[in-house]
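Changelog note: in this version the structure field was regenerated for every chain. One regenerated record is shown below for reference.
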Amino acid sequence: MANVIIMEYQLKKLVSHYRKALQIKPDNVAVYDKIAELYYEQGELDKTLEVCQEALQIQPDLVSVPKVLNKMLQTLGFEGEEITAFQNLLQTKLDFESFQMLLSCSETMKTTADAKTWKDAFVLGYNLKQKKQWDEAIAAYMKAIEIEPSLSFSYLTLNYIINYCFSPEPKHLERIIASYHQLIQGRLTSYYAYVVLGDILTKQGKVVEAILAYKSAIDRTIYLNQKITTKYINSPKIDDVSFLIIGMGKAGTSSLYYYLYQHPQIIPATDKELHFFNKNFDLGVDWYLAHFPPLPVGGGFLTGEATPWYLGSYEVEKKVFQLFPQIKLIAILRNPVDRAISQYYMNVKLMKEHRSLEVAMTSEVEILKDIADPTQVIEKYWQTEKGYLWSGLYVYFLEKWMTVFPREQFLILRSEDLSSQTDKTMKQVYNFLEITDYSLSGYPKVNSGSYSKTNNELRKKLSDFFQPHNQKLEDYLGMKFNWE
C-alpha cells in the first residue's frame, strides 16, 4: 500500500505541473498527451479516459491523445471497430448506459472462467445482469475487477446490482466482501472501490467499518483532486454539508450536479444520490458525513449531494432542518407532463413498468383528480401507481418545505432554462451558493433519455390535469413557468 501512495504522490505532482501549463495555453496538444500517458502508465485508467475526453471535446481531430486511448483499449481487450465506436462515444458523451450498450453488442463468454480480458468479464456480467442471474453476474464483475481494478465501470455495476437489484444472503455477502478485500488491497484502484466496500458493509450492518471505507474513498478523491490547494490541506476542517439538490427526479438533477462539481470550489460527495434523509436516516449522521470531504473553515470550498426524491418524501424536510438548519436548498422543476413521461420510460427501461403509457397515465389521473391534498394519498395508491403525476405536484411539496425553512434558503430553477440557457442558469446557482462565476467548455446532458412523441390527446389530458396545480405553484412562488 505504501508504494501505491508514493506513486499517487508523484503522479499528482507531475499532473499538477502539466495542468499549470494548460492554464497558460489550454489547447496545448502535447500537454494533454503527457497527462494521458502519465495516468495510463500509473494504471489510472479512469483518469486517462477523462483526459482523452477533455482533449477530444476541445479539439475533435486530435491525433496524439487517441493513441494513448488505443493502447488502453487494446490492453482491456477491445479490437477493430469496437475501438472506433468507443472513440466516437468519447467524443460526444461517455455515459455509463451508452458504454454498456456498446459492450452488449460484443460476443460474450459463457462462463467467468473463460473470460481472459476485462472486456470479456464485463460483457459477461452485463449479459448475466440482463438475464437477472445475479450471483453469476456478481462473479463476472468481480472477475473484471480482478483483471483491471482501476476502472470504475465494474464497481458501479456491481454496486447497482447489490443495492438495487438483488440482496445476497448474509453468508454470500461475507464471501463477496472477503473476495473484494483481496482484490483491492494494496492496488491502484478506483476511489469508487471503497464506496462499494462501504455500501456492502452497510448492508451487513457494519456501520463503523462502512464509515472507514467511505472516508478512504474521500481521502483518495481529495489526494488526487486538482482543486485541492495548500490552503485546503493546512486549514482546520469541519464536517458540514453546504447544499442539497432536493428535486425533482427526471428534471435535470444529474446534469446540474455534474456542472456544479466541475467548479473549483466544489468537492463532490462519494455519490450524487445518498438517500440519507428518505431511506438511511437510522444509520446516523456520522455515516452520512463520511460521504463528504471535510471543509476548511472559511476556505471557500463547498460540498453537497443531489437526491431528487427528497422533495416529495415524507417529513424529509424536518430531518434536514434537524441536522442542517442553515443549508442551501435547490429544486429544479420541469414541465410536469414531460417529467411524468420521462419517468415512465425510465421505468419501462428498468423493467419496472409493463403497462402502456396511456393506461399508466390515465389510471393515475383518475385516482388523483378528486384528492384535495395530493401529498396525502392513501396507501392503496402506491399499490398500483408509480407516482408519475404525483411527483409533478410541486407546489404541495414546496409548501411543506417552506413551513420549515425560510424562502431565502431556496433556489427554484426551471429545468427548461438549465437546458436552453445553461451558462446563465449556472450563474444563478453560483450566485445563490455565493461562489465565483465559472463557465465550462461544454454542458453535456447527463442521464437523459429518449422516447417517441406522445399523442396530442393524451398530452392534453395531462396538461389539463396539471393546469390548476401549476397555476397554484406560480401564485405561491411568484414566478412564471409557462408550461403548456
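Spot check on this record: Residues 1-6 have pLDDT under 50 and may be disordered. Strands lie at 237-238, 243-247, 295-296, 304-306, 328-333, 410-414.
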